[in-house]
Amino acid sequence: METGNSFERVKKAIHFGYPDRIPIMHAILPGAWLKYGDSLYEIVKKFPGDLADKNSKPSLKRSSASGYSMSTNLTKKYIYEDDFSFIEARNFMYGLNEASGRQQDEWDCIWEKIDPGIVGQVVSHPLADWDKWKNYRFPDTFAYWRWDNENFLNIIKESRCMGKYIIGYGGNVFEKMQWLRGYEELMIDICLNQERVKALGEKICEYVIGTVQKLAGFGVDGIEISDDWGTQKDLMISPDLWRKLFKPYYKNIFNEIHKFGTEIHFHTDGNTISIIDD
C-alpha cells in the first residue's frame, strides 16, 4: 500500500480510506518521563515506524506529552516525530507545572497536586454554593493572554511544510461543570435542579464556541473536544438524561466546528456504548 504523509494518513483514517498504518498521537504524563526517563525514551525511539514515515523529510518534532504541561528541560530532551501537531490556548487547568501544591486557574477553581508528575484535582469549586452564581464572572474566551498567536503561526507553518495534521484543543463541558460546581452537587442538579445545569452549560458552551472560532481562524485541520463520560460499566448518568441535557451542547459546538470545514475529534473515557450512535 502506498505510504502517505501524516496529514493524508489521518484524513484517510477519519474517512475510512485505508491508510498505510494507524495514525498515532501519544500523550505521556510527565510523571512517566520523570520516573523512567531515558529507559522510556529508548522504547519510544525503538519503534520509528509507529511515530513517523521513514521515507519522508525530517518532520516536526513535538513534545511527546500532547495535552500535558511539561517543563522546557523535558520537552527538549524527550521529543519524537508524530502524525499530529497540537495547539491550545493558554490555561491553568491541572495545576502547577511539574510541581506539587495548589494553584488557582482562570475559572477560580483551586487545583491541588500531590505528585508533580500527574494532573491535579480540583479541591475548591467556585460555584459549590449556588448563591454565588449571580456574582460569578466567567473568564473571557478572547482574552489576549490566552492566545500565543506568533507561536501558533510558527507551529502551523512548520507543520504544513512537514505534512502534519494540525489539531487544536477546544475544551470541555461536563468536566468544566464538575470543576465549577463539584461532582456531587452537579449530580444532584442533574436530577433535581436542571435549570442550574442548563444555565451553567450555556455559559460554558459559549466559551467553548469562542475557542473553536479562534482555533478555526488559524486554519487547523481538526478540533478536539473532550469529556470523560463513562465508568468501567456504563455512563455516569442515564442515556436519556444525557440526551436531554448535554447532547444539545455538543450539537451546537460540533455545528460550529463544521461551519469552518473542520473535523471533530471527540475524546471520552470509559464505557459509552449506550450513546455511541448519538
Short description:
The chain has 278 residues and is of the alpha/beta class. The chain contains 10 helices and 9 strands. It has a 4-stranded parallel β-sheet with strand order 3-7-8-9. It has a 3-stranded antiparallel β-sheet with strand order 4-5-6, with no helix packed on it. A two-stranded antiparallel sheet has the order 1-2.
Any descriptors?
278 residues, alpha/beta, 9 strands
Would you write up a description of this structure?
With 278 residues, the chain is of the alpha/beta class. Helix content is 40%, strand content 14%. The chain has 10 helices and 9 strands. The strands form 3 sheets. Strands 3-7-8-9 form a 4-stranded parallel sheet. The chain has a 3-stranded antiparallel sheet with strand order 4-5-6, with no helix packed on it. Helix 6 (174-181) crosses helix 7 (183-192), helix 7 (183-192) packs across helix 8 and helix 8 packs parallel to helix 10. The model is unreliable at 49-60 (pLDDT under 50).
Strand content: 5-15%
Order of helices and strands: HHHEHEEEEEHEHHHEHHE
Question: How far is it from the N-terminal to the C-terminal residue, by CA?
Answer: 34 Å
Task: Tell me the radius of gyration.
Answer: 20 Å
- Helix content, binned percent: 25-40%
What is the strand tally?
9
Q: By helix and strand content, what is the structural category?
A: alpha/beta
Helix segment tally: 10
Question: How is the largest sheet built, in terms of strand order?
Answer: 3-7-8-9
Overall mean confidence score, pLDDT: 88
Regions with little confidence, pLDDT below 50 for 5+ residues: 49-60
Shape: globular
Describe the biggest sheet? 4 strands, parallel
Oligomer: single chain
